[in-house]
Each structure stands twice: as C-alpha cells, then as structure tokens.
C-alpha cells in the first residue's frame, strides 16, 4: 500500500509532447516514503544534524577570522571550505526536512532544476577546493622557503575564486542536458533530492550518449582533482619521511591527516555514486551513499579539523574564555 506521501493526481503533472513522451510540470521526491512510520524520527535526526553543521562550520569560519594565529593560507582555505559545506548541505537538507514535515515530496520542474544545478556546482567546487588545499600542504611541506611567496594572499584568493567558478558552465550544461530528456509517464524520483542518477532512470529511449557524457564529466570533475591530490600527497609523504626528527615528521603528518580524512570521506562515497554502472538493484544503497557525502561529511568536517588540530582547539579555548568573560 502506497503512502499518502506519493498519492498524487499524476494526470495533471505532465505536458504531452508526443507518443508516450512527456515533460513533467513537477516531480515527486520519494525520499523515505517507504518508511513513513519513521518520518518524525528522521525529521528530528536530520534537523539536529543540520543545526550541528551550521554551528560547527560557522564556528570554524568565526575563529579563523578573529584569531591572529589562524591568519594563514591553510586556515583561509579551511574557512572557505566550511562556508562551502554550509552552502552544500543547505541545497538539499532544508528541502528534505520540509518534505518529512509535510509528508509531501512535490517539487516543481524549475525548483528541481535549480536544486540539481546548485548541488552539482557546489560538488564540483568541493572537488577543486580539496585539490587546492592539497596543493597548499604540498608547497608548505615540500617548498617551505617559497611558501610565503607562492601562497600569497592574492594567489590564495585566485585559487578559491577559481574553485568556485570553474565548474559553473559545465554543471549548467549538465543540468540542461539531463532535464531536456523526455520522461516516460513517471515523475517519481526515488531519492531525497534532484540528482543525475535517479533522473536518468526516469528518462525514455536511448540515453546511452547522455550517460557517457555524464560519466566523462564525472571523471573530469571527480577523478582529475583526486589524482592531483594523490600526486601532491605522494610528494608530501616522501618529503616527510626524509625529515631528520620524529617531532618534525609527527607535526607534518598532523597538518595533513585532517585533510586526508575529509578527502577520502567525500571522494569515496561520491565516486561510487557517480562512476558506478547504472542499476535499479541498489537504490537504497545509493540513498545511503548520498546521505554520507551530502550530510555526514559536512557534519564531520568541523570535528575533524578541530579535534585533530591543536591550533584550532587552542583558538576555541580562547574564544570561549572571551565569551565567558563578557
């Protein structure tokens, strides 16, 4: 028996463009409609996670702005990364909370296109920014004498701006080519937000070319930055192992470990989602993986960078001391 979550009058939700080919006026995000008895529990959990993400990443941004010891390129990138995580999760999570609260998954065609386009742009930005952060660590450890010159404030700003804008034309084109496809009398997206893989499953006809294009862009945007990260860290590890003292090696590894954890959390789940073959057998697994890189990684980000970083924990203590003194 279907939940009222997806009980819609579908006849009015399409424009007919040809034989069995339709253009949806709106979509329905099925989300967690298969477990309606848990929707209030899920609403509470995801609301708590969203608040933690906003507070955690917001604190990281604040302390990197007010603490003089954190006015370095590394923390400039971490601050931008925290802001990116807030934007990234805000594209999907508020909408999911609204759907859980109202028991409706209706989303207009334009809203779906906007959500997918923003999600793809921010996802590409995260890939590029993680690669920029790896490059920063490479210069700091492998060429420390040149670090102040190479990673000047102007260069850091250019790298961040480039990370934000370089994926925009590609992802706008991706969104257009996916939503220009004809759909086969179904507007029900078996996911909790508008994304490429579940939308492709609704498309009609031969979409092999579209799938190849999606795969190529995924390789370029996901795999290329990841390979640059691996190349940077192979040089970093090689340099660290040559350091004469254990103290130097430990300190160098500690500055890189937090970034590596975030890299593998994000790239591990995202690459499986976008690079694996299309299949209807593992839709539940796809949702779980999507939850991981869209929600859990942004939640873990401030914990990873604060708990494993003495500079950040020291700055947090100073901040809380100042607040208590007011």
Descriptive overview:
The chain is mainly alpha-helical and 326 residues long. 71% of the residues lie in helices and 6% in strands. The chain has eleven helices and five strands; from the N terminus they run E-E-E-H-H-E-H-H-H-H-E-H-H-H-H-H. It has helices at residues 39-66, 73-102, 109-142, 147-150, 153-165, 168-179, 196-200, 208-241, 246-275, 283-307, 310-325; strands spanning 14-18, 21-24, 26-29, 106-108, 188-189. Strands 4-3-5 form a three-stranded mixed β-sheet. The chain has a two-stranded antiparallel sheet with strand order 1-2. Strand 1 (14-18) and strand 2 form a beta hairpin. Helix 1 runs antiparallel to helix 2 and helix 1 packs across helix 11. The N and C termini lie far apart (58 Å). Mean pLDDT is 82; it is low at 1-12.
Relative helix content: over 70%
Number of helices: 11
Q: Using DSSP, what is the number of strands?
A: 5
Residues in β-strands, percent: 5-15%
Poorly predicted ranges (pLDDT <50, ≥5 residues)? 1-12
Sheet with the most strands: spatial strand order = 4-3-5
Q: What does the overall shape look like?
A: globular
C-alpha termini separation? 58 Å
The largest β sheet comes out as: 3 strands, mixed
How would you state the average pLDDT, rounded? 82
Structural class: mainly alpha
Kindly provide the radius of gyration, computed on alpha-carbon positions and rounded to a whole number of angstroms: 22 Å
Tell me the series of helices and strands, N- to C-terminal: EEEHHEHHHHEHHHHH
